[in-house]
TrEMBL record:
Molecular-function GO term, any one: methionyl-tRNA formyltransferase activity
CDD domains assigned: FMT_core
EC identifiers of the protein: 2.1.2.9
SUPFAM superfamilies in the record: FMT C-terminal domain-like, Formyltransferase
Stated name of the protein: Methionyl-tRNA formyltransferase
Keywords: Transferase
Amino acid sequence: MRVVMFGYQTWGHRTLQALLESEHDVVLVVTHPKSEHAYEKIWSDSVADLAEEHGVPVLIRNRPDDEELFERLKEADPDIIVANNWRTWIPPRIFGLPRHGTLNVHDSLLPKYAGFSPLIWALINGEPEVGVTAHMMNDELDAGDIVRQEAVPVGPADTATDLFHKTVDLIAPVTIGALGLIASGQTEFTRQDRSQASFFHKRADEDSRIDWSWPAEDLERLVRAQSEPYPSAYTFHRGKRLDVLASFVSEGRYGGTPGRIFYREGDGVVIVAGADARTGRNHGLAITRVRTEDGRELPAAEYFTSMGGYLTTRP
């Protein structure tokens, strides 16, 4: 099939690479300009550079809503558009233009985790698995019929970075497998159960701020979800920002006021956590590694030279 590809960052790069290695003919690529957004500078392999290396025409757009783009798409005469990590709304006259419509590739197990940063949100929420879904685009975001979907389990120590590497390897088989079904003439696919749908917003600095009223299990997943190269989970100590780089849920149960720097356990320093901490039934978050405001990384046991005092949500 003749394919136009809309995509950005490493997700779009992997999609384009798979298309270029397939039997399909990539006739045009549309991608976004470089961004300084914290989450868009991560996994930022260039779709434009890859397309140009293979002689594929490239258009750079923030939004696909101008007449020049529409005319170029009509001239390209695509059988299908394939989109992955396109960051703005694609209007119906665009996604409905190709003979077979538009296939969108999304890094979640739709209908759950439509929208942005699905791997991070899924890890924070304790999901047992994550994956990649290829679905037909319609006028509702990430809501079209599912053509192909593959899942991988979330391990007990997995970080968001681990899940990225697990799921990015699914892009090629999911995309090319879905295109094979469409090229074979199949037109009926699996409708999404919209009663199970969830939609998540872009992550920002505020979303990495530690709230010590959360249970320790949730905080430990937040730390893993904000693994390098993502912005770290953070708290404040004596008015200065402190990034929490590694932690575990304490074996012991510690009561008191959430945020209290309480006890050494193994290699960690236990911070009281959770709304039920005062009952004595909650575990704490044992921090093992931190980064100070001036960029020093060190074991928590070296940073916290004595117990007592509090970590706070704000300075």
